[in-house]
Design goal:
With 216 residues, the protein is of the alpha+beta class. It has 7 helices and 5 strands, in the order ααβββββααααα. It has 2 domains: 106 residues, Beta-Lactamase (2-Layer Sandwich); 87 residues, no CATH class. It has a 5-stranded antiparallel β-sheet with strand order 2-1-5-4-3.
């Protein structure tokens, strides 16, 4: 029996190394109800210790080669996820079990750290006083980019050209920040009232167009 179970030792060692230090791999001898081999024994068990399984070959469903995964608790109360492979002799009868016990406690702690990193507590909205100039720069860059694409300058814009520019900025969502309309008005050299009047007309026309398209 021992010689048959020996062929699985290298597999046990490979699994223990792959998941080191979180995996303990145990080969149980069913006939002797004892641990035949153990790799990375974080449970403190040793070869020859009782398996305390008290089972025999007749207790197994011969069609079931893998049992689990299932969960249990370790000697220190840590969460363990396990899976058991039924080892069979050359006649196809269960002779041993290989149990892979994965300690999830360290992984859960790491997961908590990552979760807190990406979803920190007490996060407030961006302080406007620190990002006011940044938002103004975004608006200025958008205006400059639009004018370059249209081969125009601020001075060359007529009323329709100005409204087309405002429609472009509105489409990019640049009027939803606080005081953004005032910043655009200053940059274009027009009054805030003119900005609001133009935006009102632009949004009304856009809504009417959407309603027409929806009715088609």
């Amino acid at each position: 029996m021992a010689s048959e179970l020996s062929q699985y030792i290298s597999i046990a060692d490979a699994l223990a190394k792959l998941f080191h230090p979180h995996a303990e791999v145990v080969i149980h001898d069913i006939e002797d109800d004892a641990i035949f081999y153990i790799a990375n024994s974080y449970s403190g068990r040793e070869k020859g210790d009782s398996s305390n399984l008290k089972i025999n070959a007749q207790d197994f469903n011969l069609d079931e080669d893998v049992i689990g995964p299932y969960e249990k608790f370790g000697s220190k109360g840590q969460r363990i996820r396990s899976i058991t492979s039924v080892l069979k002799d050359n006649k196809g009868n269960p002779s041993g079990l290989m149990c892979i016990n994965l300690d999830f406690s360290i992984l859960e702690s790491s997961l908590l750290v990552v979760k807190e990193f990406f979803h920190p507590a007490n996060v407030v909205s961006r302080p406007e006083i620190l990002f006011r100039n940044e938002w103004l720069e975004v608006i200025q860059l958008a205006i400059r980019s639009y004018l370059k694409e249209q081969a125009q300058t601020l001075e060359s814009l007529d009323v329709q050209g100005r409204k087309a520019l405002l429609a472009h900025l509105d489409e990019k969502g640049l009027f939803y920040a606080r005081k953004s309309a005032e910043q655009v008005a200053v940059h274009l050299g027009i009054s805030r009232a003119t900005i609001y009047k133009d935006l009102g007309e632009i949004r009304k026309k856009k809504k009417e167009t959407s309603n027409i398209l929806a009715g088609l």
